[in-house]
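job 3f2a | input accepted
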Amino acid sequence: MSFKAFQWGPRYLTGIKLIDEQHETLVNLINGLGDIVLGEVAGTLDTLVAGIRDYARMHFASEEAIWSNDVIGLETQEDHLAQHLAFVSQLEGLCASGSGSEVEQARFLHDFLTGWLIRHILGEDRALAAKLIEQGVYPKLALNSEAVATGLANSEIVFLEAVENLYSSLSVVNERLREANSTLESRVQERTRELALANERLQAEHEALRQTNIELEETRSRLLETEKLASVGQLAAGVAHEINNPIGFVNSNLTSLSEYIEDIFALLDAYVGAEPLIARDPQQMASIRQLKMDRNIDFVTEDIHTLLAESREGLQRVKRIVIDLQAFSHVDQTAWQYSDICAGLDSTLTLIGSEIRHRAEIEKDFAALPLVYCNLGQINQVFMNLLMNATQAMHSDGGRIRVTARLAHADDMGKEGVCVEIADNGVGIDPAHLNKIFEPFFTTKPVGKGTGLGLSLVWGVIAAHGGRIEVESTQEAGKSGTCFRIFLPVNGPEHEPGMLQEN
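job 3f2a | predicted structure (503 res):
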């Protein structure tokens, strides 16, 4: 299909043969740009641009020689020359910008030259030619019949013919778009089937995780019966390792799924970008909008990202379980050394600040403390668990968490040490639960919200450091809250496994 917006004929004639032949060249160049716009040809833009430049130089020289006649006033000649210079400047500006694809550049040039054809050639050139013919400078052509003369006076007819030709060409383009949409629908259905299969795999993996949690609960019962806490560490490490396996392939599947969805959305965005072309066909555009509304595409686009985010959040919860299990079993050990407890508190508060700031205000009261011989990584884990518990215990309207660090006198623990208190004004702990909160796997949180290892880890770490932990809590109206008080000896435990205590 060729985009012949302008069909050369008597309507375009000025009556001066040389000028009319050159005008016909311009019409052919404009139609050549139309072929690029419709995608009929490619890689020919540079050739057409060169032809337009050559045309401008040749035509303007010929035309200006013809108009330099006493019949046409000097002011009119100068104005016409200025228009020619403006045309060259605008043409060079459009060519120099080089922005957009070949089709977009061809569209800009096509619009520019179409305006020049309608306004300048069918308007001013024809008027100047009429003066020369009327004064007998050039003979009147035999083609100038009454019908032709009427056509020459109506440049609007030429424009309407061009629009009609454009509409015919666009009808072909729309048919191609309908065929492309049909192909797209098949591809979307194929991708939908792939997503359904991926979802089935995720459900199977979720079931595997659920079975793992059931096995973990059974293990808890056996451990509580035998009270062999030494074996809890080994078991927890093994479970953490096993959970890491499904986490790996679930996370990999989610990554691939995200990439597939982005590919689909990118394709949809490309078709959305074509809507300005489709908009010229109101019936087709209305059909597409109705389809988008019926399928609720905007909601689907937003909800897919939400579903993926929730899935990733679920993986992060499982990952936190693994981290707690590994810490509980002491899989990762950092060096024992004299450390700044206040610096550890500050770094922990910085790490989880985003979790706390929306739920509670933090108050700090740190005294000047001596360095404490400890495993600071484990101590920081203790602080993190207690601070997160305090945050989750807040009332719905928020609350306050007070963190205090001071020297511990001999009355507290019989030797030099430090005391850290983490107190909140949250909902408090049920008195019936106070004697159970440090037991492994005990939790008052809903299923899936807590592992019951946090406070058990806290107890084990403090005991390993030769310290102790106390808890006070009340649920009385107006003064509910909980305070955990940790005592740590400055010089660490009396017998650190694998290390000689320094004197």
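job 3f2a | The mean pLDDT is 76.
job 3f2a | closed
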